[in-house]
From TrEMBL, chains A, B:
<dbReference type="Pfam" id="PF03447">
    <property type="entry name" value="NAD_binding_3"/>
</dbReference>
<comment type="pathway">
    <text>Amino-acid biosynthesis; L-threonine biosynthesis; L-threonine from L-aspartate: step 3/5.</text>
</comment>
<comment type="similarity">
    <text>Belongs to the homoserine dehydrogenase family.</text>
</comment>
<keyword id="KW-0791">Threonine biosynthesis</keyword>
<keyword id="KW-0560">Oxidoreductase</keyword>
<protein>
    <recommendedName>
        <fullName>Homoserine dehydrogenase</fullName>
        <ecNumber>1.1.1.3</ecNumber>
    </recommendedName>
</protein>
<dbReference type="InterPro" id="IPR002912">
    <property type="entry name" value="ACT_dom"/>
</dbReference>
<dbReference type="Pfam" id="PF01842">
    <property type="entry name" value="ACT"/>
</dbReference>
<keyword id="KW-0521">NADP</keyword>
<feature type="domain" description="ACT">
    <location>
        <begin position="349"/>
        <end position="428"/>
    </location>
</feature>
<dbReference type="Pfam" id="PF00742">
    <property type="entry name" value="Homoserine_dh"/>
</dbReference>
<keyword id="KW-0486">Methionine biosynthesis</keyword>
<dbReference type="InterPro" id="IPR005106">
    <property type="entry name" value="Asp/hSer_DH_NAD-bd"/>
</dbReference>
<dbReference type="InterPro" id="IPR019811">
    <property type="entry name" value="HDH_CS"/>
</dbReference>
<keyword id="KW-0028">Amino-acid biosynthesis</keyword>
<dbReference type="InterPro" id="IPR001342">
    <property type="entry name" value="HDH_cat"/>
</dbReference>
<comment type="pathway">
    <text>Amino-acid biosynthesis; L-methionine biosynthesis via de novo pathway; L-homoserine from L-aspartate: step 3/3.</text>
</comment>
Amino acid sequence: MKHIKIGLLGLGNIGKGVWNIIENNKNKVESYIGSSIEIKKILVRDIQKNRDISVPKEILTTDPNKIIQDPEIDIIVEVMGGIDTAFEYIKESFKNGKHVVTANKAVIATYGDILYELAKKYGVALRYEASVGGGIPIINTLTQSLSANKIDELVGIINGTTNYILTQMSDFEMDFNEALKLAQKKGYAEADPTSDIEGEDAAFKLSILISVAFGIRISPNEIPREGITKISKKDIEYASQLGYKIKLLAAAKKLDKNFEFYVHPTLVPIHHPLASVSNEFNALFIRGNAVGELMLYGKGAGSMPTGSAVVGDILEICKIIKTDYKNQSIDPFKEINLNIIGEGISQYYIHTEVVDKPGVLGKIASTFSKYNISLESVVQRARGNQSVPLIFITHEVERNQLDKALEEIKQNRFVNEIASILRVENLS
Amino acid sequence: MKHIKIGLLGLGNIGKGVWNIIENNKNKVESYIGSSIEIKKILVRDIQKNRDISVPKEILTTDPNKIIQDPEIDIIVEVMGGIDTAFEYIKESFKNGKHVVTANKAVIATYGDILYELAKKYGVALRYEASVGGGIPIINTLTQSLSANKIDELVGIINGTTNYILTQMSDFEMDFNEALKLAQKKGYAEADPTSDIEGEDAAFKLSILISVAFGIRISPNEIPREGITKISKKDIEYASQLGYKIKLLAAAKKLDKNFEFYVHPTLVPIHHPLASVSNEFNALFIRGNAVGELMLYGKGAGSMPTGSAVVGDILEICKIIKTDYKNQSIDPFKEINLNIIGEGISQYYIHTEVVDKPGVLGKIASTFSKYNISLESVVQRARGNQSVPLIFITHEVERNQLDKALEEIKQNRFVNEIASILRVENLS
């Protein structure tokens, strides 16, 4: 019975979760793999720092090579974050014959293809369940449970910070800045929240999901994205009156020969299961050609949920180690016949602020018509002020065509502002 | 590169799904396992029967031994249903060194422990993802993705027929018999619906889930269960007025040293994600000590969703075959310190029909009080008739204590009927 030894790179939030889970659930974990297991060494920046965790100081080190080059260590667990240093350490680990588990979405989204090839070359395993959706088993479901399916569509809420903010705005009529401050106070948003609220974090995760589900490599930078900073509580109220909730959706879908994807604030019908995903929770809706519709829901972040996914990956590798390991990483299946489209056509919700004069609506409607954009509905919510909201829901249109029309509409002297442009998805 | 051959026992609804998925997704499937794959022989009762599927007649046989004893066949897929014959065929398959995939909840719930031991003895794999929740990856999630967790609670909607009926009753104000007939017409209920509507099917599945999640073997017969036949559209209406939906829940949870479980119609708060699981959909809520709350949602039945899970299992076994297989079945982890309780304490919804006389409510309330049952709320929905509904929601009480009180309440000559007894779960 092999005794399995682990090297941990990083002892922040996720690293502590990994330590606590292995300590607290030791019986369960060791019974599952049929071996004993031990975290032998942990890389930290400062050994003397006070930590609210029972890790013996002797196993801490500031020298990564003491871990990566230790011949007794079987598995390296990278939970330090960042991109380039983490990338270097993972490569070095492979070269030293170590299997690697990482929770690092940025490094997988940016260098996943290179790491995949390297793992294959060195005959070791690379697992990254925790990089998307925290403790929710998204990667395992897509790569294993749904292996019999061609995936047609993914659409989900994969950033907990923005979902928490949107939920607070919706349930307690806060504006964006109030809700952001509350999220920061509660630890759901970072001091610098840019990556979350501008949709970059979601784009990293969507890039990983696209490669896992469709076998297509799209860099996070190539994903059309918009954050939630421009959403007002008025938008949330109007959307609600129309029967929708506003969610930051990440989506990718095959439509005939086209492949579309985006990260964008979107109106979701109120009775759709995604509309009831609240606060810091995440959910991913998957459509496969055999399984039909599937949804996975849970906590997308946090020390213990993310640690749950990391330790799950560690244990799968333990089971591999105990057999005669041959590389079991999954060859992404390339569907080379698809046209890479980006965000494709959609219905849109346009919130304009206009002067309440006769003829303004007609003028705007004519401009839409000139650009071949037809309207599903128009709603005017107030009257008589200097600036009144006028809400349009369009039929399906390409974004750049919409932008041309809006550019012209903005020139109209009775139009004060194009306050919001949101997608509308009438998810079947 | 090994060519993998499969023997299929049964070509009903699920068998056809398995055939269609392997045919339609052949490129994806073969790329995933890195081998070619073929269904070599299929056991049927009648070779000449007309089937709406492109299976060549030459591969059909009525002799199970032609499949089970074929030395070329690697994997036997049992999708014929029933209990004892299926059990015999699976045992014979193991003895012939075959790995087995089954979608048969009855055989796994009844003989899972024996089959698990036999698979271990013969060094082969047994997989049964499709036995619970159709295409939803419940078994994989519990056994693999959540392997780092101790599971504290499972609660779910795991029977699509009853959920379809309850949804129709709720959304279209049908009574039970109307909704059942519609379900039969749509193919969601069998000609003899007993097993579904009386909760037997859910008890089979819960028995499997309990063994997989908690390592405890509870026979389906030992699970306290009640079906949905006594639920009236009035109950659904009253529940709705109180902020609840009625769902047939299957649940199992650890409470300190006790282990509780049941299949029972239950009031679920309307904003809980389980309340929005409609029609034939299934969902399972899981609470693990690391991951927190997780929910899996999808189609719990049907040819293609169930086939998706069966083929997923086949492909995992293919990957095992390609390595040097050592038994990888999961040893259930026995938590022997738990007291097996059955359904434990709960809040209850009691719908009584009474004569509208002064003093009736007081009399009933006193009887509850005599049995130490305190009431959370009492609602009287109508006045002045011979029979008026009087609804009680109790605080937490043991079921047998409640039954004693209700027995005495029934003796009251102004109580016409105890119309319904439903659980209330204020799922956190």
